[in-house]
Design goal:
By secondary structure, the chain is mainly alpha-helical. It contains eleven helices and no strands. Helix content is 74%, strand content 0%. Keywords: Membrane, Transmembrane, Transmembrane helix.
């Protein structure tokens, strides 16, 4: 049974506090008067305050975009950097610095800075604090199936490279054909990750046999290349045929439709050709 995860992305017509960030920047325009104060300290202070405000607004906007992507995805990691939180704290620092220039004691300025940071967090919200969907059985199965595909592809590519190093083009082409046929079969099974994972044990045996045959070919290449080539080609064909037949039998036991696997193979091939 295929498992599907339905998600609802954020409503593009829904407004949020982040949409008002430009107004926050406009509210800081009076700081421009400091630029015309004539003193170097006023100029530096104005630039520092503008920098804090600009960085804070940028971080909050980036954090909001990351939060939207998190909400829309069925599986997601929490953001590595809490941008919205950092942006809110920078706004608090900005307000603290502005207030500190008007108060003789630090406590009122500190309270105002904390209040500003708190209001910013209330307005823009927290960054996601937890990973999402990583414990979902469907996600776990998909991750394991993807890892199995990558491992199998690497093992078979290694076999192709080792045979190719011998310089025998027909034998290399035969090994490449085995690699391509096997990966097409595995990707067809991977449409439903549970089916591919059920094939893991025979697949591991097949990969082990391929590695053993390549090692036997390399060992016999120096003594009798013709005999080593003949034995390798015969055994490779037999192994590939047996593995595909076993996979088909397993699929037919699970799905009475005799053409189900061929349909998946056709779909997989069409997708890869379209991607290419």
């Amino acid at each position: 049974m295929k498992s599907r995860i339905h998600t609802t992305g954020p409503d593009p017509n829904k407004t949020s506090a982040v949409d008002s960030l430009p107004l926050l920047l406009l509210a800081a325009l009076p700081l421009l008067l400091w630029l015309f104060d004539g003193s170097l300290m006023a100029l530096i202070a104005a630039l520092v305050h503008f920098a804090l405000l600009g960085v804070a607004a940028l971080l909050i906007a980036q954090g909001h975009a990351a939060h939207q992507a998190y909400d829309a995805a069925p599986v997601a990691h929490r953001p590595a950097v809490p941008r919205k939180l950092i942006g809110a704290l920078l706004l608090g620092v900005l307000v603290f610095l502005l207030a500190a220039s008007r108060f003789t004691h630090a406590l009122p300025a500190l309270m105002l800075g904390l209040a500003a940071a708190g209001f910013a967090i209330a307005a823009f919200g927290f960054d996601p604090l937890r990973h999402k969907g990583l414990n979902d059985p469907a996600h776990i199965a998909r991750s394991r199936a993807d890892a199995l595909i990558v491992h199998s592809d690497a093992a078979l590519r290694d076999a192709v490279d080792r045979v190719g190093a011998l310089g025998h083009q027909p034998l290399t082409a035969r090994t490449e054909a085995m690699h391509g046929a096997t990966m097409r079969l595995l990707r067809a099974f991977a449409v439903e990750p549970e089916r591919l994972l059920g094939l893991q044990k025979p697949l591991d045996r097949f990969l082990g046999l391929v590695e053993a045959e390549v090692s036997r070919l390399e060992a016999g290449w120096q003594e009798n290349p013709a005999q080593a080539t003949r034995l390798y080609a015969t055994r490779l064909t037999a192994m590939t045929t047996a593995f595909e037949a076993g996979a088909r039998q397993r699929r037919q036991r699970e799905t009475p439709d005799a053409y189900a696997l061929d349909a998946d193979l056709l779909v997989e091939r069409m997708q890869r050709e379209r991607a290419a």
